[in-house]
Design brief:
mainly beta, 22 strands
Length: 302
Amino acid sequence: MTIATGSRHNLAYIAETTFGTTPSTPGFQNLRHTGTTLGLSKDAIESEELRDDRQIAHFRHGNKSVSGDVNIELSYGTFDDFIEAALAGTWAANILKAGTTRRSFTIERHHEDINKYLRSTGCSINTMSLSVAPNSMITGSFGIIGSGFAANGSAISGSTYTAETTAPPFDSFTGSITEGGSSIAIVTGLELSIDNGMEALYVVGQDTTLEPSIGKSTVTGSVTAYFEDITLLNKFVNETESSLQFTLTDSAGKDYVFLMPKIKYNSGNPEAVGPGAVTISLDFVALYDSTAATQLKITRQP
C-alpha cells in the first residue's frame, strides 16, 4: 500500500479569466513551496428537533470553505503573480504598487506517489507575510480563500505544466535596510504582513462562496533591533512618521526592494530579560503616501 508523502507533493497554479472557472486545456505553472494547508472544510448543520429518546436524527453538511496557506522561501520571479494579487496591483516596468485589481487562480495539489489531484478554484490571495531573520532564508506565506474544491484521480485533459523556477532563495546575509532615509545595521528581525480583509459571501441555494468581498489594504509589520540609542524609541513616543526600505539580494545579484514611504510605529519597548544584549521591537503600520501614490512599493531589479 502506497502512502502519500510530502517529498512527492507538487503544487501548481493557473490564473483564471472567470472567477472560479479553470481555463480549458490549462497551462499550469509549477510552484515552489515548503508546505501547504490549502483544502476544504464545511460547516455543520444539526437539527434542533426534540425527541423523547434524546437522539440526533438529522445532520447535514453546510457551507463549503476552501482556505489555507502556501508556505514559501522567497526567490526572485517565483511568486510575482501571487505578490501582484496580494497587492491587487499590476507590475509595470518592474514596479508594483497597491491597487484595486482582483485576481483569482486555480491551485492544484498533486500527490505524485499516489497520483491524486486536489484542485481548488476561485483562489484569492487574502494575506501575504514575509519574515527576515538572521542566519536563515527569507520565508513567508500566502493566505488563500477559495470557492470550489474537487479531488480527482487524473489531471485535467489537455493540461500542461511549466517547470518550477530555479532562482536561488533569498537569505538574510545579503541586502540592506534603510530606516528614515538612513542605513541601519542593528536590525535582528523584520516582519511584513499584507491583509486584504477578504470575507466569504454565501447566498441561499449555493453552498460555495461568491467572489469574496475585499476590505482595506492593511500593511503592517515589526522591526526588532539592538537597543543602542533612543532614536527609534522616540519615533514611537512622539508619533513621528518615518519610512522603511529593505532590499533583498540573491546570490545571482537580483533584487527585490520593498519600500514603505510612510510608516508610524505603534509600539516600542526595550526589554531586558537577561544578561545579554537588549533589543527593542517596534510594530508599525504603513500609510498611504501621496508622493509615491502607495503605502507599499515593490521594485524588482533583475
